[in-house]
Amino acid sequence: MKTNTLVECRGLTKTFPGALALDRVDLTLGRGKIIGLLGPNGSGKTTLIKIMNGLIRPTAGTVTIDGENPGPYTKSQVSYLPDKNYFADCMKVYDLLNIFEDFYEDFDRAKATEMCASLGIRETARLKEMSKGTKEKMQLIMVMSRKAQLYLLDEPIAGVDPAARDYILNTIISNYNEEGTILISTHLISDIEKVLDEVVFLKEGRVIRHEAVEDIRIKEGKSIDEVFRDDFRMVSQRTSQELGDWHYVNSDAGEVRDAGNAGEDNNGTAERGEQ
């Protein structure tokens, strides 16, 4: 019997060589929600999404999807949109439709075909013939044409123009499985807050806030964007003693962030501070 809990993280920690990307994350996500995973670049959003999707393993702690550890079952329940295009340029649209239909039992080919037609995308078109924006929309169409339990969307509106953002948001809210949950990572709060039920604020690998959007607006009398800006101004850098002299890696953008007496490393790695 299904419970209302879809995702549960307990003490979830991820370190890369000399760098802490997630720091003892405790997080519970219910079903039937659109949830914003919000934080600046380097806060650990992409790392958390990749762990949920089973692409990387945590260093410590656990995560379950629908009560199961990441594996074949959870992959069948999760529809993942990465922050980069992963379709080969040589492929045609009908190749993508065939692959998704063969690989995912919950893929609705008719829905995908209808969305392609609405954009004037022919099934015989090759991806290399498409603009960057059309490729991104094509990838979103494939992801949202699944009847998944969990949609993990990593920065779906980053780097696109306002008109494309509107299309992307409308596609998301019009086509997802309403019994499932969407987790959208972004740092573009004002563009997306109107569709969110809950928000999770992530800073330097830690969850600093997880609340219903309406509760925040009633309690604080501000937009989510304003609250986000206030929270991230108020949360001070933790001291090197609290961090054990760990330097924080920008896991979303390949940069190192100073977490005390740490220095920057332009190669996108981090080291322990001098003892």
Task: Describe this structure as you would to a colleague.
The chain has 275 residues and is an alpha/beta fold. The protein has one domain: 3-Layer(aba) Sandwich (Rossmann fold), CATH 3.40.50. Helices cover 32% and strands 25% of the residues. It contains ten helices and eleven strands. The chain has helices at 45-52, 72-77, 93-103, 109-118, 132-144, 162-175, 189-192, 213-220, 224-234, 240-243; strands at residues 5-16, 19-30, 34-38, 60-65, 78-81, 150-154, 181-186, 198-203, 206-212, 248-250, 255-257. A six-stranded mixed beta sheet has the order 5-6-7-3-8-9, with helices on both faces. Strands 2-1-4 form a three-stranded antiparallel beta sheet, with helices on one face. It has a two-stranded antiparallel sheet with strand order 10-11. Strand 10 (248-250) and strand 11 (255-257) form a beta hairpin. The longest helix is centred in the middle third of the chain and has 14 residues, at 162-175. It is globular and about 50 Å long. The chain starts with a strand and ends in an 18-residue tail after the last strand. Mean pLDDT is 84; it is low at 236-275.
Protein structure class: alpha/beta
The CATH topology is given as Rossmann fold
Strand content: 25-35%
In CATH terms, the superfamily is P-loop containing nucleotide triphosphate hydrolases
Low-confidence stretches: 236-275
Report the helical percentage. 25-40%
Count of individual domains = 1
Number of helices: 10
Strand order of the largest sheet: 5-6-7-3-8-9
N-to-C series of helices and strands: EEEHEHEHHHEHEHEEHHHEE
